[in-house]
Design brief:
It is a single chain. By secondary structure, the chain is an all-alpha fold. The protein has helices at residues 9-29, 45-66, 83-123, 132-156. It is flat, with a radius of gyration of 21 Å.
């Protein structure tokens, strides 16, 4: 059974939600001053770009849903959602929010990544999800991702993120 035979209203509602989000962002962008800065664009430039993209995508999703739906999409399998994965990912996000000012950006984001990936691995049924090697690889990967992001923001963009020390490098 293909997606064409299914009810198009859920897809239409998603498109309408995206379109309304774009319109709300555009309404918010109207309140931002348009004075051009050093680069020739003002602070309202990026919100306008995001609003335009959301409006176009929302309209496109509505059009797709009303003209036959997402033609290449398979019908839902009927599998129940993985609540264990939801709990793991939620724990990662909550731990990040709770610990970012205590242990710093790098370590809290690494912990968030570690917990989220473990949850997704378990939801996918990977047999190696709980092994010490997998935990180590996921921890190192989280560090490899979060450390350069931290350094880019703090050293190159001069945006203060919570660190473990006051040096700006950890």
């Amino acid at each position: 059974m293909t997606q064409q035979a299914l009810n198009p209203w859920p897809q239409t509602l998603i498109g309408a939600g995206v379109l309304l989000t774009g319109l709300a962002l555009a309404a918010g962008a109207l309140t931002i001053p348009a004075a051009a800065g050093y680069g020739g664009v003002g602070p309202n430039f990026l919100p306008w770009v995001c609003a335009a993209v959301l409006i176009v995508c929302g309209a496109w999703i509505i059009w797709e849903s009303r003209t036959g739906g997402f033609r290449e999409m398979e019908a839902p399998s009927g599998e129940a959602p993985s609540w264990a994965a939801f709990v793991w990912v939620s724990a990662g996000l909550l731990a990040n929010a709770a610990l970012i000012t205590t242990i710093g950006f790098i370590l809290s984001c690494t912990l968030c990544y570690l917990l989220a990936v473990q949850g997704l691995r378990r939801a996918a049924g990977e047999s190696a999800a709980g092994t010490p090697r997998t935990w180590a690889v996921d921890t190192v990967t989280g560090l490899v991702i979060s450390a350069p992001v931290f350094w880019m923001f703090t050293q190159f963009l001069a945006i203060n993120l919570p660190g473990l020390t006051n040096t700006g490098w950890i």
